[in-house]
Design goal:
The complex is a heterodimer of chains A (645) and B (328). Helix content of chain A is 32%, strand content 18%. Chain A has three domains: 204 residues, D-Maltodextrin-Binding Protein, domain 2 (3-Layer(aba) Sandwich); 150 residues, Dipeptide-binding Protein, Domain 1 (Dipeptide-binding Protein, domain 1), CATH 3.90.76.10; 244 residues, Roll (Dipeptide-binding Protein, domain 3). In chain A, a hairpin with a 7-residue loop joins strand 11 and strand 12. Chain A is globular, with a radius of gyration of 26 Å. Chain A contains 25 helices and 25 strands. The longest helix of chain A is centred in the last third of the chain and has 18 residues. In chain A, the strands form nine sheets. Chain A has a four-stranded mixed beta sheet. Chain B has 328 residues and is an all-alpha fold. Chain B has a domain of 178 residues: MetI-like (MetI-like fold), CATH 1.10.3720. Helices cover 77% and strands 1% of the residues of chain B. Chain B has 17 helices and two strands. Chain B has a two-stranded antiparallel sheet. In chain B, helix 16 crosses helix 17. The longest helix of chain B has 38 residues. The radius of gyration of chain B is 24 Å and the shape is globular. Classes of the chains: A alpha+beta (645), B mainly alpha (328). At the A-B interface, helix 11, strand 14, helix 12 and helix 21 of A face helix 2, helix 3, strand 1, strand 2 and helix 5 of B.
Amino acid sequence: MTYQPRPIAGVRKLVPMSGALALALSFALSPAMAQSYSEAPMLADQVAAGNLSPLDQRLPATPLVVEPLESVGTYGGTWRQAMRGGSDNLLERTIGYTRLARWNREWTEVVPDVAESVSVNDDATEFTFTLREGHHWSDGEPFTSADIMFWYEDVLMNTDITPSVPSWLRSGDNPVVVSAPDEKTVVFTFSDPNALFLFNMATVRGSDILAGSPRHWLEEFHADHNADADAIAREAGAADWVQHFASKIQGPHARWRDEGRPVLDPWMLTEPYDGSGQVVAVRNPYYHKVDTDGQQLPYIDEVTYGVFEDRQAVILAAINGEIDFQNRHIETTDARPLIVQNRDQGNYDLWIAQPAWSNAMMIMLNQTHKDPVLREIFNNRDFRVGLSHAVNRQELNQIIHAGTSRPWQAAPRPDTALFNEELASQYTAFDLELANQHLDRVLPERDSEGFRLRPDGERLSFNINALTSRQFQIDSLELIKSYWAQVGVEMNVAPVERSLSETLRQNNDHDANVWIGGGGYDMLGLLDPKWYFPFEWQSSYASAWGIWVQNPNDPNAEEPDAAALRQLELYRQLQATPDLDGQLNLMREILAITQEEFRVIGTVMEPDRVGIVNRDLRNVPRSMPNTFFYMTPGPAAAEQFYYAN
Amino acid sequence: MLTYIARRILFMVPITLAISLVTFIIIQLPPGDFVTALSAQASENNEQIDPETLAALRERYGFDQPIIVQYWKWITNIVFHGDFGQSFEWNRPVSELIWDRLGLTLVVSLATLIFVWILAFPIGIYSAVRQYSWGDYIATFIGFIGLAVPNFLLALVLMYVTSRFMGANVGGLFSAEYANADWSWGRVGDLLNHLWVPVIVLGTGGTAALIRIMRANLLDELKKPYVELARARGLSETYLLLKYPVRVALNPFVSTLGWILPTLVSGAVVTAIVLSLPTTGPLLLNALFAQDMYLAGAFILLLSILTLIGTLVSDILLAWLDPRIRYE
């Protein structure tokens, strides 16, 4: 491989280690100097033809100055990618990663993006965003605080469109209050501290705000602003204006179905994602960023997305050199040899997509099972420790992951601030004798075939559900089934379709299931703690407890035990702690309890993946975190990618 | 004959209504609904949609109402307004989505049908007339391979080979430059340039099957006395062959012709997915996965009605072709 991965360190370690590097890589905010700006030839032509206003009228008074990763670039070219089916979120990750504030490239903090600056008060209850003077939507209309207020008043506070305010925009039981003291200022006020607010905004959740902001475009579909909104909705096939309006702004795909929608992104759609063919976006002439030489970004003229159905077809497109930069759909272990082998044919190099997952497959026995017998067995820590010792993780790594992984529990990855050696490695030794010792303490009796009996005399047998879309987990489970049979435990692998899996878990109706483990990186651990303690119904090792945290009145809810409640209390403190160090300290306390409880059996670490990058493409990081929470590759700042030839 | 047709058409009305009810129940059968699928999609990314939001979405889409109420709304909108509802996933009217893709689906299916018939009839007749000749053995050999190899596998192999050794991508029906273009001669040419792959892939299985059926049918007929008689009367071999035994051997084709109509819409889903064809098959499959119920429902209803029409057409054709058929 041409490039060595640069380890992406955790919050604590990266900042002191690479101060100079971080400075060179990060976006620099510089004051508006009396600088002359320049634009792409295709835009200059339009200005000359009188179809577009001149650049200084299009750029905000203080454009965001982006420090290119390697070098200042030149204009031109097309960035080709590939999507699958009708609900791919690639657009949201690539050309749609624009927020008031967003992740920096290193994933260590949140930096201003559309906002010129962000300030937070001491107890994290008030967040003030200062917008840029003279900022415009991609259709040339002004973008001001009134647009954000439209989102707040007519979208978020409209109970028809938003019946319940999402949890990241609430604190305590109260929704956020947004106000706009002047045209350039927006203030988000929470009744209680909401320390993770900016982090949440930088994830996929934050895209809702700007999606619901283009007032001049959305008003046509809103009954409070247009008496004909219902008629327009029915024309479009929707039941009423609410459904129609919501379909334009809510959900990860809503923003990509319309042509001519005003955006603040580097590129704007000319061929929408409507199922009729490839998706095309061209440069936004009003984009608010420039490089250090004053050239308006983006460098690349056009972005295209071929729409494929089958994953193999995407892989073929990649090795044919029809994809310029991508990791999605081509990063699986089985595709890797083909991708690596055809670098010359496809004229690409590889980059490392470091998964932010803690684990490739967590085994979660439902410790709040509706059957009291199974519940008691699964709740016995010795039972879980015994099963963990009975898993041959080295063999799993060799057979399933081609040796690219390593034994690992569901724990933060090495080189992160939250890394905990003991949590990561406990009970990972493959030792059948030790496993039998632990299991004998729980279920000493066996039947004639050597399988262990439950206290009621029946043979212990349970199902583990795995998603049909994750074949490698089904394969892993088949191996584990044979390991566990050696210690007398009968387990059955049950591949389930994802909607069924969803229904089972939401109703606490599963014996056990496997999932890919979150919380491998610090930011992810802070934002997505459900794998470390029961926090949501997705915490399927204790669904009933997770359901209780979300809604104690749910018929399937049960109050968690003392340890889980203590973890929840610590997390509530974390959410109210404004500084990162304090947050990390509290998270470490939570993890110490996770280690003690050992609710989840980890298998191996999710191995590094590779993505491809056209050999002529510049300013592309050769390694980046890979998760939907980081919006990979969003923070890599595609607006400053350029073609050398 | 006319009363027969009229009666058949009259019967189709209650059958269609019954089918629409069954259709609606079928698309409701899988656990959960579109909102569950949406939530499951978020879960796969380890994301989560708030339970309150899910409940609100259910209410907005009317999933919280009893099935019979939902059905009534759906069917009355179709019957009285021609409105198939909205696709939740695409935010577009269902009819628009289906019409978009139906045209290209027809092109692919008809091209395949013509390819199959042009190839299979002469080879089938030849195989029967020259039974156990070298030509027959070769046709039989290739025919059995065509029958045995699944279409999607053939598609994958063809794609890999062309990509690996010719450096060309054979997926889709258009090159990138023509994918969204308006119709022009250039676009038609581009379509023809891409069409051969799906036609070959989809056609091999059908060709092989048709060769075997034609051969078997014709072999039965060739031994019958009327052939002998025709020959004794001095008719030329080609004339008598086409005039009598081939015509009788055609019977099974005509009676299965009706099945072609629905396969025009749903046919070869897996192959279409592998080849990324912008046809209706992948849209239907995705709609089922996403539980996009009005889109899926419209498809299933359309397929059922096409099957009804197809059966009627083939019955009429059969009656016309074969004088032995009675209308009782």
